[in-house]
Amino acid sequence: MPRIAIELSYDGTAYHGWQRQPNASSVQQVLEEQFSRIFQEDISMMGCGRTDTGVHARHFIAHFDAEAIPGNNLIFRLNNMLPADISIHKLYKVHPKFHARFNATERSYSYYISTEKDAFSRFHQFTVYRKLDLNKMNDACVILKKHVDFGAFCKSKSQNKTNRCEIRHALWTQHDNLIRFDITADRFLRNMVRAIVGTMIEVGENKLTLSGFDEVIQSQNREEAGYSVPARGLFLENVVYNQENWKEIDSQ
Fold this sequence. Notes:
- By secondary structure, this protein is of the alpha+beta class.
- It folds into two domains: about 5-105, Pseudouridine synthase I, catalytic domain, N-terminal subdomain (Alpha-Beta Plaits), CATH 3.30.70; about 105-235, Alpha-Beta Plaits (2-Layer Sandwich), CATH 3.30.70.
- Helix content is about 20%, strand content about 25%.
């Protein structure tokens, strides 16, 4: 059975995250239903991560196995059947043991903050009217990259084997009324980025010192960190793999 990798993007506003839920709509459920119709068999997918309710993805990878690949113009046909908030970009034949979650070597997220009300981006940004000191927040990024254990930013009662992550990039930037936080790591814990952003906002508001931020991380205690910002401002921007032997199925 060929194993197929899907490169897709989605607006998470209408979904309860990627993963199937018993009584709620998810991106995985919608994709599996439509792929099953096209492939004329039951399709079960595995995603590169479990984005939470309301989180978006510009670049998401999933994989599945199928008996056969049905005809030409597959991407065009799938996109016609899928809702407007999910887009398929590419399909690849991959190694039979490829795994969308476990073979990823790096993930990048961005979080978007608006400094004024924006009627057109209310589902994709978090509004903070208070002035933020981005210089201090970037100093906090330097501190962040010195650590490897991020239990302080992990959702309570998460059953992780380890809270260790290698943060390779973290930076705050601002253009006009839009503030953006970019972060890249080998892996992320559940709710980690939103908890980091919420804690760094406290640094930017001078409610938390840089030494206090360092102490929060060292505590490995979620109760010591700041609040989790809303999901709507969070985007999975990129997932990196060794793409050797990936063969594109069709372009459109």
